[in-house]
Amino acid sequence: MSRVPPWSALALLVAANTTCCPDVVPTGSYLDAVRERCGNGSVDTEDEECDDGEQNGDDAACTATCKIGYCGDGLIIDGAEECDDGAANGPSASCSETCVAAACGDGIVQPGEECDLGDGNEGDVFGGGCSLECRVIPGCGDGFLDAPIEECDDGNHVDGDDCTNACTVAECGDGIVREGAEACDDGNTVSTDACVDCQLARCGDGVVHEGVEECDGADDCNDACIRDRVVFVTSETQTGLFSVNDAGLAAADSFCRSRALGAGFDVQEHDFWAWMSDSETSPAQRFHRSPGRYVRMDGTVIAESWDDLTDGELLAPLEITEKG
């Protein structure tokens, strides 16, 4: 018997069945598998969710396995998704839950970003915030020490604590009252004004409060920080007339000062006047009316105040000269 080529056998099969394309294809046959395969452009089985024929693909709306593509399946749909990392998608991942690739300015802090305020990102060089490159811009009060620009940063905007709102270490003399540590701060280190070492000046603190105190802590200083006024009678008698032509009261005052200078007083700091008057001026008008004490050279108090000095009765007689 001669060998029949395959095409001859097929021809005989066709002739025997009289038709090449039967209406009924046996289930499970080769033709059945061909007809129902994914990619034929028709959804043929329950396993197929879609079938776009040649348009199927892992980057298409219908995948190569005839499944409808979706965000989170790990396949990037061309034109619809920027990324898809499957189960790794997330708000802080490189691919978001909506399959949008992470980018600086999307308002989400992603790996590699220090911050992201979205439209709030700024291009300032300094001042605090987030830059256009999603980098933290140094800013006082953000809680991060940005040396050498900042000395401190406690993350708040309280000016009365140990770190000022300018991010400098609080210190006496900076003009800011530090709560719990300073009673005042006048912005200077002057020790003779109303604020001394950031404490309110007071009588007894050992510092003379200029314009308020005459003394503080000295032997000739009373409890109200008022200096004693020293009085004496001159050891020498000045004779003559203290007339205008003779320089009047000025000559008498000069004589008193010369005696005080000889007794060791600093007449530049402590002035002395003669208890005299003329036709125009009385001692009460010439002298400073001190609320402090008036004492002799030996320290004896003759009057507790100006009023006491001029009431007509002294506590002790005024009989001591500048020599004591």
Structural account:
With 324 residues, the chain is low in regular secondary structure. The protein has a domain at 229-309. Helix content is 13%, strand content 5%. It contains five helices and seven strands; from the N terminus they run ααβββββααββα. It has helices spanning 6-17, 30-35, 248-262, 283-286, 306-309; strands at residues 129-130, 136-137, 195-196, 199-200, 229-230, 294-295, 301-303. Strands 5-6-7 form a three-stranded mixed β-sheet. Strands 1-2 form a two-stranded antiparallel sheet. A two-stranded antiparallel sheet has the order 3-4. A hairpin with a 2-residue loop joins strand 3 and strand 4 (199-200). Mean pLDDT is 82; it is low at 1-22.
Relevant terms:
324 residues; 7 strands; disordered N terminus
Q: In angstroms, what is the radius of gyration?
A: 53 Å
End-to-end separation:
168 Å
Molecular shape: rod-shaped
Fraction of residues in H or I helices:
10-25%
Q: In total, how many beta strands?
A: 7
Question: What's the number of helices?
Answer: 5
Structural class estimated from helices and strands: little secondary structure
How many strands, what sense, and barrel or not for the largest sheet? 3 strands, mixed
Strand arrangement within the widest β-sheet reads: 5-6-7
Poorly predicted runs: 1-22
Q: What is the string of helix and strand elements?
A: HHEEEEEHHEEH
User: How much β-strand is present in the residues?
Assistant: under 5%
Average pLDDT across residues?
82
